């Protein structure tokens, strides 16, 4: 599952320069994590490139992609562009970019909130989104350090940074984000 030049050109047309460069950064961070943690490198890189492919379309378009793909999502996800762009991105990656690998599609689908039982590939894309070279928010170094300890430690640090941010900004917290955090905390072998 490689990201072809044609796919990159298509992606570049549908994203702002800043978002395209973020996607390139996530692809490169995902590639590095996949190498370190023994996960399919090309799958990780492709999912990294495409994870935000639906980020800049209107909510109604995201909903149309998700409906066409036959995906079902919670009401909270359906009504929020911030939460729906993952599922919409998976739908678009399949329909417009020809991605057939379900592991890649799931990594795109769950990249914002994760899920219980997320796979190592899903963790990698989730985590790469936080630590790609272009990110410089307060606390990013802590997540980069945790990413070197284990995938679980990195994902946990990422989720906790998001939870802090959501609390500080008075935002609603999606229950799935909390479930992902609890699952990571409870998972017995904290070794991935
Ligand atoms: O798409 P990105 O900006 O690269 O990053 P992302 O997909 O991780 O996050 C997109 C947005 O989703 C970000 O502004 C924070 C928001 N978000 C993440 N988890 C939750 C959330 N928003 C709500 N309301 N609840 C959550 O649990
Ligand atoms: Fe995203
Ligand atoms: Fe992103």
Please provide a written account of the structure.
Helix 6 packs antiparallel against helix 7 and helix 10 runs antiparallel to helix 11. The chain is mainly alpha-helical. The chain has eleven helices and no strands. The model has no long low-confidence stretch (mean pLDDT 96). It is globular and about 35 Å long. The chain has a domain of 132 residues: Hypothetical protein af1432. It is 68% helix and 0% strand. It binds 2'-deoxyguanosine-5'-diphosphate and fe (iii) ion (FE) (2 copies). One fe (iii) ion (FE) binds next to loops.
Q: How many strands, which pairing sense, and closed or not: the largest β-sheet?
A: none
Question: Helix coverage percent of residues?
Answer: 55-70%
Bound molecules: 2'-deoxyguanosine-5'-diphosphate, fe (iii) ion
The gross shape turns out to be globular
Measured between the Cα atoms of the first and last residue, the distance is 23 Å
Supply the CATH superfamily name of the domain at 5-136. Answer: Hypothetical protein af1432
Report the β-strand fraction as a percent range: under 5%
Please tally the β strands and state the result.
0
CATH fold call of the domain at 5-136: Hypothetical protein af1432
Task: Please tell me the CATH architecture of the domain at 5-136 by its name.
Answer: Orthogonal Bundle
Low-confidence stretches: none
Task: Average the pLDDT over all residues and give the rounded result.
Answer: 96
Order of helices and strands: HHHHHHHHHHH
- Tell me the structural class: mainly alpha
What is the CATH class name of the domain at 5-136? Mainly Alpha
Rg over CA atoms, rounded to whole Å, is 15 Å
Count of helix runs: 11
């Amino acid at each position: 599952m490689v990201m072809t030049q044609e796919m990159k050109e298509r992606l570049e047309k549908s994203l702002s320069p800043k978002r395209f460069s973020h996607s390139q950064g996530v692809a490169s961070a995902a590639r590095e994590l996949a190498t370190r943690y023994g996960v399919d490198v090309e799958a990780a890189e492709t999912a990294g490139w495409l994870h935000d492919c639906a980020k800049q379309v209107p909510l109604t378009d995201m909903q149309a992609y998700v409906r066409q793909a036959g995906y079902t999502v919670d009401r909270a996800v359906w009504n929020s562009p911030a939460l729906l762009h993952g599922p919409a991105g998976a739908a678009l990656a399949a329909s417009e970019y020809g991605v057939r690998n379900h592991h890649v599609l799931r990594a795109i689908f769950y990249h914002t909130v994760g899920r219980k039982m997320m796979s190592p590939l899903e963790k990698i894309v989730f985590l790469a989104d936080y630590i790609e070279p272009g990110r410089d928010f307060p606390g990013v170094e802590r997540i980069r350090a945790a990413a070197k300890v284990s995938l679980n430690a990195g994902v946990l640090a990422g989720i906790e940074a998001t939870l802090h941010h959501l609390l500080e900004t008075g935002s609603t917290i999606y229950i799935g984000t909390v479930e992902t955090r609890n699952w990571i905390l409870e998972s017995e072998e904290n070794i991935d």
